[in-house]
Specification:
Elements lengths: L5 E2 L5 E3 L4 E3 L11 E3 L5 E3 L7 H11 L3 H13 L3 E8 L5 E4 L3 H13 L2 H15 L1 E8 L6 E7 L4 E3 L10 E4 L14 E6 L5 H7 L5 E7 L15 H5 L1 H18 L5 E5 L1 H7 L8 H19 L13 E4 L4 E4 L1 E5 L10 H15 L3 H4 L11 H13 L2 H18 L5 E5 L3 E2 L8 E2 L12
Parallel strand pairs: 12-13
Antiparallel strand pairs: 1-2, 2-3, 4-5, 6-7, 6-18, 8-9, 8-13, 10-11, 11-12, 14-17, 15-16, 19-20
Helix pairs in contact: 2-4, 4-13, 5-13, 7-10
């Protein structure tokens, strides 16, 4: 009988009772392929088939950890939300924000409320960690004198048109149906792209038409020209993400399909001759009945909690001619594929690689290598504080449309936007958190 192979959904990884089978499938990567629709309109594909972000979303949804880790990264970047003021330095050169005058502060607060600024911060943070690309929509007031709102367009729904004669990406097409959508579809939204690299406020002030624009943010990586690639994508290409996603399926399959037989009872054909007189003269029906009764008797001795600790007596036959003993009944336990935590170490390795690729210390996730726990409070505190201290480049990127465009365009002179970062402290400080960056942290929890 042919041995059945249990494959995952994509038929890229399989298991038999004696072998593991894998077939190599390379995940999609961002590309700059240009395609044309039926009317000759050009589009810069995001992925070979223009479905790279859709593939990423599908892979993350199949994994039990990755989505939560990316969400945690976005929340850590968001920290305690937004603050603003006039950036000054004290006598020690330490930067601090001083409040703006009451009228200006109220104006900014009202603007932040109307534009749902906290929603922008969180959505932009998520797109940054998922894709390394953020598409910020800038919306002008009807009289074009102010930026009335900023928000994010879902990154997976955005595609660039090809470069213009100056080498700039000046058009963004937005369609929720990519890769099946077309540029000329009535559902496709076409917006001009602001050059974020030089005087975006001045560029926007010089435009004479339109009220909606795209300001692009990306965390650049070498080798990716138009669409950037998140660092954690390495676990997709290495295969570890698929291993992590497939392990629960194989655990479930083993539980569902594994045999419930725990012992193999072997009975010698001589057992019946030696135990039952006139065996050869009995009818087949009589032999079957005797065998069934004997097997039931042995089964009752082996099964059931009430038989735990009882002795089982087996027989053997001494062959005087050959000078050896032959077992007439032999009981052999069948190996359990699930005992000793089959795949447990593989799962730990996949989890560790996933956290490392996403850039999260295990203590921030609630696990630590070797012990599976979150570690001591000092481990969590030091990991958290270090993470916040090294997050500034991404925080600055998310705030770039505010600090490089909105402030200048709306005339909010000298205003700077910042994330309010909180740091964990030791209990001897009298509080568990502080909004001031630490110059040193204790290694002892108190």
């Amino acid at each position: 009988m042919d041995e059945k192979i249990l494959f995952n959904e994509g038929a890229t990884f399989g298991i038999t009772s004696s072998a593991i089978i894998s077939t190599e499938v390379k995940p999609a990567r961002p590309t700059g392929t240009i395609t044309k629709d039926d009317k000759g309109k050009k589009l810069l594909n995001w992925g070979e088939d223009n479905d790279f972000p859709q593939q990423v979303i599908a892979d993350v949804r199949k994994n039990p950890e990755l989505g939560n880790l990316l969400d945690k990264q976005a929340n850590l970047l968001y920290s305690a939300g937004l603050e603003w003021g006039i950036l000054e330095k004290d006598k020690n050169g330490i930067e601090k924000l001083t409040p703006a005058d009451i009228a200006l502060d109220k104006s900014i607060k009202d603007w932040c409320k109307k534009t749902s600024i906290n929603r922008y911060l969180l959505e932009a943070s998520k797109d940054l960690y998922w894709f390394n690309n953020v598409f910020v929509e800038i919306i002008l007031s009807n009289d074009r004198k102010k930026i009335a709102q900023i928000c994010t367009q879902a990154a997976e729904e955005c595609r660039f048109g090809p470069q213009n004669n100056n080498g700039l990406l000046d058009t963004c097409y937005i369609n929720a149906q990519w890769p099946d959508g077309k540029i000329e579809d009535p559902e496709t939204k076409k917006l001009p792209v602001i050059d974020a690299y030089y005087d975006p406020a001045g560029t926007l002030q010089e435009t004479t038409s339109g009220t909606n624009f795209i300001y692009t943010l990306n965390y650049a990586n070498p080798g990716n020209k138009f669409y950037q690639l998140a660092d954690w994508n390495s676990i997709r290409e290495s295969g570890w993400l698929e291993v992590s996603s497939d392990l629960p399926k194989f655990k479930k399959a083993l539980l569902k399909h594994k045999s419930t037989i725990v012992n193999h009872i072997k009975v010698s054909n001589r057992y019946w001759d030696l135990k039952f007189d006139g065996w050869d003269k009995k009818t087949q029906a009589e032999k079957t009945k005797i065998k069934q009764d004997e097997i039931d008797h042995v089964q009752r001795l082996l099964a059931g909690a009430e038989n735990a600790g009882k002795n089982f007596w087996s027989t053997f036959h001494s062959d005087l001619n050959m000078g050896k003993d032959n077992e007439l009944i032999k009981i052999e336990p069948i190996a359990d594929l699930l005992k000793d935590g089959t795949f447990l170490e593989d799962g730990k390795d996949a989890s560790t690689y996933t956290m490392s690729a996403v850039g999260l210390h295990p203590a921030l996730v609630g696990t630590m290598p070797n012990n599976g726990l979150g570690g001591a409070g000092s481990n969590i505190r030091e990991a958290y504080n270090l993470h916040i201290l090294t997050n500034k480049s991404r925080q600055d990127l998310i705030l770039e449309p505010l600090n490089n465009l909105v402030v200048d365009y709306n005339g909010w002179t000298d205003i700077t936007f910042r994330f309010k970062n909180q740091f964990m402290t030791t209990l001897d400080t009298g509080t568990e958190t502080s909004s001031k960056a630490q110059t040193s942290t204790s290694n002892t929890s108190k």
